């Protein structure tokens, strides 16, 4: 029996496979989250030197594949058995085997979350092309959320990858969203936050969000359809307001300090992807008995 036939006929096997795949992808996402902002900074410096006609300076060769992963403190290469998702962190007791400096618990948490949400996608959506698209979308949203949380940056390369993934899935008939709804969702997603940005700037003279938020919302509109945009915006705004007030009240964030909106958009996008229709049906059932 072919592998795809096994996955299609046995939901438990599909769920377990996506759990393992998600754990491995989560390990790779840690690399994406850590290295992408540095790669962007290197590219910006190179572009600035070209524009200013400054002498070329040698930059470290860095990509998602090279160089091999190493400890940020002692630079000791991480061996393959020290890079097993979640388990290696537990066996190492959260410390580097070379310098014994603590390894952030965030790394295994991202791996574990990616594995669990991937398994849930498999159980909830079942085998098919839409599951593959949903998994790729969720993985991209996790990376975008964490990069924005760390740096207040939403890389175009990831936003555009999500946008084109959603549009191509709609064009190919893999997505439950029709292509016209996906295109309209992308346009309305971008223009809605763009309008809010300029209205806020004209009223206050300040920038309330970045252009990366517009592009992420456009990608979510293409992925979910224009009909889900109000739900995503409502969920992200509510969670963002609650978390923001909590951070300000606790003193962790100053009142005039910017808080990235991307993580809330990404989280709301994942919720809408998995439970959006159920939430809307529940709301309509209560509002229109």
Report on the structure:
Helix content is 69%, strand content 0%. The model has no long low-confidence stretch (mean pLDDT 89). It has helices at 3-9, 11-51, 87-91, 106-125, 129-151, 156-171, 179-204, 211-224, 229-250, 262-287. The chain is globular. With 289 residues, it is mainly α.
Ordered list of secondary-structure elements with their pairings:
Layout: H1 3-9, H2 11-51, H3 87-91, H4 106-125, H5 129-151, H6 156-171, H7 179-204, H8 211-224, H9 229-250, H10 262-287
Radius of gyration: 21 Å
Structural class: mainly alpha
Query: Residue share in helices?
Result: 55-70%
Distance between the termini: 49 Å
What is the molecular shape? globular
The succession of helices and strands, N to C, reads HHHHHHHHHH
Quick one: biggest sheet? none
Mean pLDDT: 89
Tally of DSSP helical segments: 10
The tally of beta strands, per DSSP, is: 0
The amount of beta strand, in percent, is under 5%
């Amino acid at each position: 029996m072919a592998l795809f036939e096994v996955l299609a006929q046995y939901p438990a096997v599909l769920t377990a496979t996506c759990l393992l795949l998600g754990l491995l992808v989560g390990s790779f996402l840690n690399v994406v989250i850590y290295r992408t902002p540095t790669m962007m900074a290197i590219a910006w410096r190179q572009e600035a030197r070209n524009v200013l006609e400054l002498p070329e300076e040698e930059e470290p060769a860095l990509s998602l594949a090279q160089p091999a992963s190493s400890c940020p403190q002692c630079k000791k290469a991480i061996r393959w058995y020290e890079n097993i998702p979640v388990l290696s962190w537990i066996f190492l007791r959260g410390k580097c085997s070379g310098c014994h400096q603590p390894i952030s618990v965030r790394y295994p948490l991202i791996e574990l979350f990616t594995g669990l949400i991937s398994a849930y996608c498999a159980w909830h959506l079942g085998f098919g092309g839409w599951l593959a698209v949903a998994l790729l979308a969720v993985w991209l949203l996790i990376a975008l959320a964490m990069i924005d949380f760390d740096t207040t940056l939403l890389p175009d390369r990831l936003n555009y990858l999500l946008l084109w993934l959603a549009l191509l899935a709609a064009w190919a008939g893999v997505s439950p969203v029709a292509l016209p709804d996906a295109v309209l969702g992308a346009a309305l997603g971008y223009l809605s936050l763009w309008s809010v940005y300029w209205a806020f700037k004209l009223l206050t003279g300040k920038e309330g969000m970045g252009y990366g938020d517009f592009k992420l919302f456009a990608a979510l509109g293409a992925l979910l359809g224009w009909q889900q945009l109000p739900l995503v915006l409502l969920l992200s705004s509510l969670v963002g307001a609650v978390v923001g007030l909590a951070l300000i009240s606790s003193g962790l964030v100053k009142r005039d300090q910017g808080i990235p909106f991307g993580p809330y958009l990404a989280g709301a996008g994942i919720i809408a992807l998995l439970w959006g229709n159920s939430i809307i049906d529940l709301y309509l059932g209560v509002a229109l008995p």
